[in-house]
Amino acid sequence: MDQETKDYLLGALENVIDPELGVDIVNLGLVYDVELSEDGFCVVTMTLTSMGCPMGPQIVQMVKTSLYELPEVEEVDVKIVWQPVWSKDHMSRYAKMALGVR
């Protein structure tokens, strides 16, 4: 998969806003990888801000909804991983500014 396709998929995922933080999951650094096979099978490898994140199932559903809107995507599999552990260091400059994190 080329970088252009990956950027396209990440662009769709920027529509998924973490309900608790009000910033999208891409800028929060929660999305570690996204892949799309030629037959339309999309795999998102991501984490959550904490293991006990009550919004986890809702965020996963929002990820699926945003990707299913793309004509190339036939099926979505969201893999939640805990390694590497998420930290504020994963956040983009935009997310840090939006949340007042230094």
How would you sum up this structure in a few lines?
The protein has 102 residues and is an alpha+beta fold.
Q: Could you outline the blueprint of secondary structure elements for this entry?
A:
Layout: H1 3-13, E1 31-36, E2 41-46, H2 56-68, E3 75-80, H3 93-99
Parallel strand pairs: 2-3
Antiparallel strand pairs: 1-2
Shape summary: globular
As a percent range, the share of helical residues equals 25-40%
As laid out across the biggest beta sheet, the strand order is 1-2-3
Q: Give the CATH architecture.
A: 2-Layer Sandwich
Strand content: 15-25%
- Looking at the structure, the CATH topology is GMP Synthetase, Chain A, domain 3
Q: What low-confidence regions span 5 or more consecutive residues with pLDDT below 50?
A: none
- Return Rg in Å: 13 Å
GO molecular function, one term: methyltransferase activity
Organism: Planococcus rifietoensis
InterPro entries: Fe-S_Maturation_MIP18, FSCA_dom_sf, MIP18-like
Domain MIP18 family-like: 9-78
Explain what the structure shows.
This protein is an alpha+beta fold and 102 residues long. The protein has a single domain (3-99), classed as Fe-S cluster assembly (FSCA) (GMP Synthetase, Chain A, domain 3). The chain is built from three helices and three strands; from the N terminus they run H-E-E-H-E-H. It has helices at 3-13, 56-68, 93-99; strands at 31-36, 41-46, 75-80. Strands 1-2-3 form a three-stranded mixed beta sheet, with helices on one face. Strand 1 and strand 2 (41-46) form a beta hairpin. It is globular, with a radius of gyration of 13 Å. The termini are far apart.
